Amino acid sequence: MKPGTKLKSAACDTEVMVIRCGDGKIECGGAAMDAEKPANVGTPSDDHANGTLMGKRYVDAGGAFELLCVKAGKGSLSVDGVALTVKDAKPLPASD
Length: 96
What we know:
The protein is an all-beta fold and about 100 residues long. About 0% of the residues lie in helices and about 30% in strands.
């Protein structure tokens, strides 16, 4: 998978764009994400139903994965079952 790839969830409405990608399976709502939207969208599993926010970047602890949410949904993002977190914004420099 390369940067710029768009992925769609099989468990909710979430869509993401890959910014940085390592080795592993990107999931949303407990189901694998794919470039094609499935005909029948399921529901997120209870363990992976924290939701995603449009415009936020999601990263893993090691920094190998970075995903940009382009369409929000009810499922939460993970890689191989390990939850991704929202990337903190960089502080602006002081203008004093």
